[in-house]
């Protein structure tokens, strides 16, 4: 059975019933405090503006985005018996989501991140108190839900997990043949990929995280971030790819099947060794999309599947398969949820049965909706708008000329 289209079985009233499997999302639930000045801030004094509580955490944001796009999922996390924990759980419960995978106890101090933005909505500084995720989201707690992981269409882990928990989660999924998506979270935490790289199917770093991951996996300091301080210099898509491709190749050589590099206003690179098997969708299956038929039907009818399937390479090739997806113009309100919603939109689409190119187009459309929202994940998605934006991205995506990496 294709691991992207699994089902579970439930015994009810003595009868065995088939139920749609749930994606498993493992990582942080965090209360974000957002401070946005209304005028340019001066140091060593207060500045007028707005301070808001936001429901956050990479795993939680991804899960909320997926849920609002119609996916069934199971979140594994940890929060405390405190005000931030209560806020996070009340919202999660009100959204109709299960609390089963969320550990709670008196000893846990719920993760909180305080973000300070500039007047343009860009993050200027932040302080993160997220030790509880590493301390309490243990391999033993995650192991309790091995039956969920074993039947999942995909497992996503965020790098807030400790290296032992990260390795255990990814190994468990790999043993069941379930694809794993690794979200690096930050430059520092992205280096934790070392503990689990051989089990990871997808990774979604930004440029700086990509460089940090490549250096960590190379046990050296061979790669340097691209200098963009001079705003008069604009790199072409091909030259940007040429500069990043050696680092991307390190991740692919270490076993990651698909590397998705987010480039902010420069769009996204989708890379693999040869054409990935995830390029083809599940449209020939009787029920590839489970309950998420609206997303599947809408995208599949507007973005015909298998766009790059005739590329003359096979998976495992010494040549890199690479596609560039442009960013969408947006009326930016806040940028903090964009990356998480890109991942959530892509995963929701993969779970629905769409191929990776269709799915990433939906992810970029979801990221646009996020940056135009006050919250980390939009309060709701318009299927018509997501479809229209995904269609624009899908048909603007282009294969990049790739040379052998040997």
Question: Can you offer a commentary on this structure?
Answer:
The chain has 406 residues and is of the alpha/beta class. 35% of the residues lie in helices and 21% in strands. It contains 13 helices and 16 strands. The strands form 3 sheets. A 10-stranded mixed β-sheet has the order 7-6-3-10-11-12-13-14-15-16, sandwiched between helices. Helix 2 links the parallel strand 6 (73-80) and strand 7 (102-105). Helix 10 (293-302) packs parallel to helix 13. It is globular.
Q: Give the N-terminus to C-terminus distance in angstroms.
A: 34 Å
Q: How many helices does DSSP assign?
A: 13
**Unreliable residue runs:** 282-287
User: Would you tell me the overall average pLDDT?
Assistant: 87
| Total beta strands | 16
Percent helix among the residues?
25-40%
Order of helices and strands: EEEEEHEHEEEHHHEHEHEHHEEHEHHHE
The fraction of residues assigned to DSSP E strands is 15-25%
Biggest sheet strand order reads 7-6-3-10-11-12-13-14-15-16
Q: What's the main sheet like? A: 10 strands, mixed
